[in-house]
Amino acid sequence: MEAFLHQVFSGLANGCIYGSVALALVMIYQATHHLNFAQGEMATFSTFIAWALIQRGWPYWAAFALTVGLSFAAGLLIQRIILRPIERAPVLTNVIVFIGLLVIFNSLAGWLFDHTVKAFPSPFPQNSILATRWFSAHEMGSFLVMMAVLALLYAFFRFTPVGLAMRAAALNPESARLVGIRVSWMLAMGWGLAAAIGAIAGMMVAPSVFLDPNMMAGILLYGFAAALLGGIDNPLAAVAGGLIVGVLENLLGAYVIGTELKLTVALVLIVGTLTLRPNGLFGKQVVTRV
Amino acid sequence: MAEAALLEVRDLDAFYGPTQVLHGVGFRLERGRITAILGANGAGKTTTLRAICRMVRASGSIRVDGQDVLGRSTEDVVRLGVAHVPDGRGTFGALSVEENLRLGAHVRHDKAAVAADLQRAYERFPRLAERRRQQAGTLSGGEQQMLAISRALMLRPKLLLLDEPSFGLAPKIVAEIFRILRTINEAEQVSMLLVEQNARLALDLAHDAYLLETGRVQLAGSSAALQADEAVRKAYLGI
Amino acid sequence: MNDLAARSALTPPRRRHGLGWWLAIAAVAVALVLLPFLVKNYRVFQFNLVLVYAIAVLGLNMLTGYNGQISLGHGAFYAIGGYAAAVLMERAGLPYGATLPVAALLCFVLGFLMGFPALRLGGHYLALATLALALAVPQLLKHKAIEGWTGGVQGIVLTKPEPPFTLRLFGQSLNADRWLYFVTLAVGALMFLLAWNLLRGRVGRALIAIRDHPIAAAAMGINLPLYKSLTFGVSAAFTGVAGALGAVVVAFVSPDSYGSFLSITILVGVVIGGLASIPGAIFGAIFIQYVPNLADEISKSAPWAIYGIFLIVFMYLMPGGVMGILRKAWARWRVGAAAAPPSPAAPQGEHRP
C-alpha cells in the first residue's frame, strides 16, 4: 500500500510538470489554433541558459528569474518575427515551421552546451521543511512552484485588463480589433507566456531527469497527450490531464508493463480514451453548423 | 465655410478578393446627426462600414474628423473615436456581460470616468445590470444587442457605426432600442451611421439617408425627402 | 469551385501527346538507365534511398495531402515493412521479391485497422494517435518476447541480393547496389503508376472532397468511413513497400533506425514536395535525402539547426511546396503560350485557365 501511494504521489509530482507543459500548449492553441511542437525544445534550451548562469556563479533564484524573463522575450519575438507572416497559411505549413524550430533549438542546445548529461540543482534542500513522507523536498517544492504559477496566471487573466484583452483576442480576434485591442501583440504575449511556463517546467524537472538536449522530448509527448485528454480548449483541464497522465504513467510502469513499454501503453490508453470521448475528458461538444 | 463633416467618404471602392463590391461611394455625416445607409441585401451597406473600420480592402478617401482612415489598421481607427457595432453583435460569448463592457473601454485610460460610464450603461439598460456576471452568450438576442451597443458606447465614441441593429429581433425590442439610440444621440450628441435593411425604422430615426444599390449611391437626402420619394416608397417602404 | 479546380492536380488538360512528348520521355528513360553506371557506388546508394523515400512520401501524401488526415506515424509502417522483409529473407529464406507483396498486404491491413480510430479523431488528435504508433513500434520491436525473430536491439543484417547477370558499362560493373537501383526504379515506377491510376478521376476527387468538405461529401453519397479507412490502408501499404525496399538497400534493420524522427521526415517530404501531388513525392524525397547532407557541409557542429532554417525558409518561399511553384510557373507559361494563335493541328479541350 505504501509503495502504491508513493507511486501515486510521485506521479502527481510528475503530473504537475506534464500539466504545465500542457498548459503552455493550450495557451498557444487557444490563441492561434496551432500546437507548438517546438515547446519542449524551447523549454530545454531555457533550462540550459539557467544552467549556464548558475555555472557562472549566479544564485539560483536570480538565474531562474532572468531565464524566465529571457524566455518570455524569446517566445514573443519568435511569434512576431517568424510566425506572424504565416499566420494565415495552411496548418501543415505551420507544422513544418514548428518542426524547423524544434530541430533548431535542439541542435543549438547540443552545439552550445554539448551533449553530455548535466546535473541541474534543485533550490529545495533535501532535508528542508518541505520533505515529507510521501514527497521529497524537490517534489513538494516544484509542486508549490507550479501551483503558484497557475495562481498567478489565473489572476492575470481574470483580474487584469491585459489578461482580459488576451482572452478576448483569443476568443474573437475580429471583435477584439473593434474595441482597439492589438491582436497580434496579444498573440505574441501568449507565446511569451507559454515560453516562460515551459522554462519553469524545464527547470523544475531537470533536477530529477538530468539535463541534456533531449530532456523534454518524452515530456512534451505526455504534455501533448495531457492537453488533448483535458480537451484542447481548456487550460485547467489541461493541468488536470497532466496529473492524470503522471499518475497513469507511474502505475503502469510499476504494476502493469514495466518501464520500457510504459510510454507506449500510456499513449495507447490515451488514444483509446479519445476515441471514446473525442473532445477530451472535459472538453465541450463542439457543434458545427453545416 | 461649413465646418468639416465628422465623416467624409469619397470615391470609395471596396473589394472582397478580386471582386469589387463598392463603386465610387461618397457621403457625409455631420456632427451630432444620425445618417442612415439603406439598401437591399447585397447592396454593399455592411461593406461600407467594414471599409471604414479597415476590415476590407478599399481605396479612395475616408476621413474621420479630418484624419485619413485608409492608411490605418482597425485598432487605430478605434483610437480615432470610431465604435463599430457589427452585424451579428460581435459580443464575446464566453466572457461575462461586465467583461464585455470593460473591453469596450480598452483604449481609455481615465479609470474613474470608465467606472462612471459603466454605471450609466447599467442604468440605461437595467437588464444588463441584472445579468452583469452572466456569460454574454447566454443572453437573448435583444439583450445581446443592448450589450453590443453599450460596449461601443463605453469608448465614448465620436462616431457610432451600427450594422443592422434590428436584425432578428422582435419589433417591441427593436422599438425600445431605437428609442434609446435617439435619446443617446440627442442627450450626448453621439453621431451615428446606421446601416439598416428596415428602411421605415431607419428613416424614422435618422436625419439624413443614402440609398445604396449594387455598390453605388443611388439617392441621397434628408430622411423626409427620401420618405416622400415615390421609388423609395414603392421599393423599400412597401407603400 | 474555381479554387478547387485550380488546386487539383487531377484535371490535367486533355491533349494528345505529340511526338516531342514521347521523345522526351524516351530520353529521360535512357538517362535513368545509364545513370548508375556514370557515378560512383556511393551515389547509387543515395539514389536508391531517394527512390525508396519517394515511394514512402507518395504513400503519406495520399493520406495527408489528398485526404487531409495528418499522420505522424508512417515511420511505423516503414519499420514494419522493413522488418517484414528482413525476417522473411533472413529467417524464412524467401527471395526479396516475394517480401514486397507481403509487406504491402501486412501494412495495408494494419493501416486499414488504424483507419477506424482515425475516423473518430481528427486533426491534432489523429496526429497524437499516429505519433503514439510511431513510438510504439520501435519499442515493441525491441521487446524480449519476439527477440528470436527480430534480433532485439541488435536488429537484423540483410544480405544484399546479387544481380542475376553481369554487365559492364562505362567501366563500371553491375553490382548489388546498381542492381538494386533498377529494382527500386522498376518498383517505384509501378507504384507511381498505380497511384496515378488510383488517384485520377473519381477516387482522387472523392478523397479531396472528403478533405475539404467532409459533410458535403457525405451528403453526396461518398462512403466516408470506407474511403478514409481504405486510404489509410493503401497509404500504409505504399510506405510498407518502401520500408521493405529500404531494408534491402541499407542491408540492415534495427529498432533505433525507425524512431519518431523518421515519421516527421516523411511528412517533411510530403509538404516540401507539395500536397496532393504525385510527382511532388520525388522532390520531397530528394529534399529529405540530400538537404541534411548539405546542412552537414555548411555546419559540422549544428547541422540540424541549418536544416531547420532550410525548412522555415522553404515554407516562407514555397508554402505550396516545389510542385506549387512549378504549377504556378507552368500556368504562367501557358498564359503566355495561349496569347499566340493556336496552330490548326493542335486539339482543343483546355480545362485549366
Description:
The complex is a heterotrimer of chains A (290), B (239) and C (353). Chain A is an all-alpha fold and 290 residues long. Helices cover 73% and strands 0% of the residues of chain A. Chain B has ten helices and ten strands. Chain B has helices spanning 45-52, 74-79, 97-104, 111-124, 126-130, 141-153, 171-188, 199-205, 223-228, 230-235; strands at 7-16, 19-29, 34-38, 57-64, 67-68, 82-85, 159-163, 191-196, 208-213, 216-222. In chain B, the strands form two sheets. Chain B has a six-stranded mixed β-sheet with strand order 6-7-8-3-9-10, with helices on both faces. The model of chain B has no long low-confidence stretch (mean pLDDT 91). Chain C contains 15 helices and four strands. The longest helix of chain C has 27 residues, at 224-250. At the A-C interface, helix 4, helix 9 and helix 11 of A face helix 6, helix 12 and helix 14 of C.
Please name the defining characteristics of this protein.
heterotrimer; A: 290 residues; mainly alpha; ABC transporter involved in vitamin B12 uptake, BtuC; 11 helices; 73% helix; B: 239 residues; alpha/beta; Rossmann fold; 2 domains; six-stranded mixed sheet; four-stranded antiparallel sheet
CATH topology of chain A: ABC transporter involved in vitamin B12 uptake, BtuC
CATH topology term of the largest domain in chain B:
Rossmann fold
SS summary, helix count of chain B: 10
Percentage of β-strand residues of chain B: 25-35%
Largest interface: A-C, 41 and 43 residues
Overall CATH class of the largest domain in chain B: Alpha Beta
Low-confidence stretches of chain A: none
Strand order, largest beta sheet of chain B? 6-7-8-3-9-10
Query: What is the CATH homology-level superfamily of the largest domain in chain B?
Result: P-loop containing nucleotide triphosphate hydrolases
Order of helices and strands of chain A: HHHHHHHHHHH
Which percent range fits the helix content of chain A?
over 70%
Mean pLDDT of chain B, as a whole number? 91
